[in-house]
Design brief:
689 residues, alpha+beta, 3 domains, five-stranded antiparallel β-sheet, 19 strands, 44% helix, 16% strand
Length: 689
């Protein structure tokens, strides 16, 4: 049943929007052009809304749907982006820096109307259209009164109050999408569509390219047993995540599936598997609005990225008005939304994530016209994430939830996609019992050490000492978790939370790709476990390099602790990546298994430090916190950073990794990229082959 008031407001917006292009001459030329072009774009999205209401996606041909889909995203595609107002640089050049930033933000925000049109979410459409019209009328009134342009602060205030006023409604919607399985827009399409009729891909309102079509066609070509193997590995990993940590999955009623367009045949099987476990699948769209936290790295269900530079340029649009009052209001809105859905939150089990990889690493262009947090904004951003994380953990308790994550390549990985895909399925289903036994050999050696010394080779300048916890009862305790295929697929690592005091030195990686961003000569210097300095060589300017690392590795923190030290053992994945030349296209999920890795931020046991867990050999994990997470007993917001970035040294950049005992004796585990510890020879077989 449609809300009549909302529908009336939508009709009024539509009528006013149509007349704006006719009034271009009333404004200064550049601003007339901006409002005319933006109004026509919004009208196009309203036309698409009508198309959906009339069941167009079910009736139209595949060719027509492809044409309509491209038309929706055409103006931000790389070949046209630099000539439109979604690009902050173009907007600033045409409208001036101050107005350009604000109006580019507004133009980008209106693009979220596509998602709302397909979900027939009229309320979300109305508030954004009314925002656009309010800003337009401010310019129109100023022009009519002979003032030329309105005060810039007036426009900033309009944007601020829009974000502030609607935050409560937004968070209620966002929280429901996270937990409520009755919000079934995505699930209904996935479960009820004929997946052999690829027109279904256009029903989501996401950008569709040949890659999504190719993926869907390829999965349709596979026997059901192959689909079952992929989905069962994924869902069984989720179930085992509860089992190995002693959590009761029977208390849970929902799981959040995050995946990508084209993978619906596997997702459908996963939904069925979870239902057999007593879990309802919740599937929601990756954020499309700056109000929802739109980011380059997608979290949710998503299609192709029309232009990653667009996502990068607008990642920090909220910096325009990010102040203490706004942050406090957001946190209060979030608290109220969680309280309103606390029964659903209590029975939510956590996310089950299917990642996609294969694109060329993205090297963003740094633009001074983009909105960025200043020092105060960075501090507030950290404060918000800390507060939001604390709230989420209060309603979806860390000691009761779990997760799983797996990754598959997309067709964009190259001509040998199907061959590579088949190999990744094999990597995801390696013999965990074999790896478990080998990894126990590494753990036994590491548990005799006071610290680990890691040294790079060749161009790699790593020289790092990682301090380990002192085991009070070595016969019953261990520092390292023996990680095989459960929450973190594929298998292949042993990891710990190192001590911060005594963890010192330089971490350096010559080339790396993390969360789709490419880094050249990434360096982090540690002093007592905290990042003391950082840089890279992506840009000519040291200032730009530090900003890039601060935003994307440090997550706006001035410093971060080393939250994890691990040794990846999946040499099969490493050799496979080298064979196909896809190292820089792999997700962190796989690359972290291809050498020693170090995470900055929270430990792997964030919010679960007091939960007793054991390795398969029966030893209790003793290293579940560090000096920062231990602060939870005094101040939760000082204890948790709400970020965790893994940085891997690939085997070919690794000179030596030694376990050093308190008496100074050394046992080398890896030398020149090969495992030399007795009992680990099997790991070199892939390297030899």
């Amino acid at each position: 049943m449609k809300d009549e008031t909302v529908m009336e407001r939508l009709a009024l917006c539509r009528d006013r929007l149509i007349r704006i292009p006719e009034e271009e001459g009333e404004l200064e030329p550049a601003f007339g052009d901006y409002f005319g072009r933006t109004a026509r774009m919004a009208a196009l999205f309203l036309e698409e809304y009508d198309f959906v209401v009339q069941d167009g996606p079910q009736k139209a041909s595949l060719e027509e749907l492809a044409k309509r889909n491209r038309r929706l995203y055409e103006d931000i595609l790389p070949e046209k982006y630099a000539f439109g107002y979604a690009d902050p640089r173009y907007a600033a050049d045409r409208l001036g820096r101050q107005f350009g930033q604000m109006l580019s933000l507004l133009h980008a925000e209106l693009r979220s109307l596509i998602a709302s049109a397909y979900e027939q979410d009229e309320a979300s459409m109305v508030i954004r259209l009314e925002l656009f019209l309010e800003v337009y009328h401010a310019f129109y009134a100023a022009a009519k009164e002979g003032e030329g342009l309105p005060p810039a602060e007036e426009i900033r205030e309009i944007l601020y109050w829009f974000a502030s006023d609607y935050s409560e409604i937004l968070y209620e919607k966002k929280v429901r999408e996270l937990f409520d399985w009755k919000q079934d827009f995505f699930r209904q399409i996935i479960m009820e569509s004929d997946l052999t009729d690829l027109r279904y891909l256009y029903r989501f309102g996401e950008y569709v390219t040949e890659n999504e079509l190719h993926m869907a066609r390829y999965l349709n070509s596979l026997p059901k047993e192959r689909i079952a193997l992929m989905a069962d590995t994924f869902t069984e990993g989720y179930r085992r995540g509860f089992e190995v940590t002693g959590k009761d999955i029977r208390k849970k009623k929902s799981v959040n599936i995050r995946a990508f367009l084209g993978f619906e045949r596997v997702v459908r099987r996963a939904v069925e598997n979870f239902a057999a476990m007593g879990l309802q699948s919740v599937i929601y769209r990756a954020p499309a609005s700056f109000l929802e936290g739109r980011k380059l790295e997608k979290a949710g269900y998503f299609g192709a990225a029309a232009n990653k530079q667009f996502e990068y340029d607008h990642e920090y649009d909220q910096a325009l008005f990010y102040d203490k009052k706004y942050v406090n209001h957001l946190l209060e809105s979030y608290r109220n939304a969680l309280e309103g859905a606390k029964e659903l939150a209590e029975v939510h089990g956590g996310p089950a994530v299917i990642e996609r990889f294969g694109e060329e690493p993205f090297v963003p262009e740094s633009k001074e016209e983009n909105l960025h947090f200043d020092a105060a904004g960075r501090k507030l951003s950290v404060e918000y994430r800390s507060g939001a994380g604390e709230l989420m953990n209060a309603y979806v308790k860390g000691e009761e939830r779990s997760f799983t994550i797996i990754a598959f390549p997309g067709p964009e990985i190259g001509e040998r996609f199907e061959e590579i895909f088949d190999g990744v399925v094999r990597i995801n289903t390696l013999d965990y019992e074999l790896y478990q036994a080998i990894q126990q050999k590494l753990i036994d050696a590491l548990d005799r050490a006071a610290y680990v010394w890691v040294k790079g080779r060749g161009e790699n300048r790593t020289d790092l000492r990682v301090a380990l916890h002192v085991l009070k009862d070595p016969e019953r305790e261990t520092n390292f978790e023996n990680c095989v295929a459960d929450v973190n697929i594929p298998l292949g690592e042993v990891f710990t939370s190192p001590l911060l005091a005594g963890t010192d030195g330089k971490l350096h990686v010559v080339r790396s790709c993390m969360n789709g961003l490419k880094y050249t000569d990434l360096e982090l210097d540690f002093k007592d476990g905290m990042v003391e300095n950082y840089t890279c060589r992506n840009f000519a300017s040291e200032e730009e390099n530090r900003k890039f690392v601060r935003e994307n590795v440090m997550d706006h923190h001035e410093t971060l602790p080393m939250g994890e030290f691990a040794i990846g053992t999946n040499t099969t994945a490493y050799v496979y990546a080298r064979r196909y030349g896809i190292e820089e296209k792999l997700p962190i999920l796989i690359t972290e298994k291809m050498g020693p890795h170090f995470a900055v931020g929270d430990t792997c046991y964030s919010h679960e430090e007091d939960l007793v867990t054991y390795n398969p050999d029966g030893k209790r994990l003793a290293a579940k916190e560090n000096e920062i997470s231990a602060l939870r007993k005094e101040d939760m917001r000082r204890a948790y950073l709400n970020c965790h970035m893994d940085i891997t040294i690939p085997y070919d950049e690794l000179g030596e990794l030694c376990a050093v005992s308190a008496d100074g004796s050394r046992q080398t585990l890896i030398r020149d990229g090969r495992f030399v510890l007795e009992g680990c020879e099997e790991l070199n077989r892939a390297l030899d082959e």
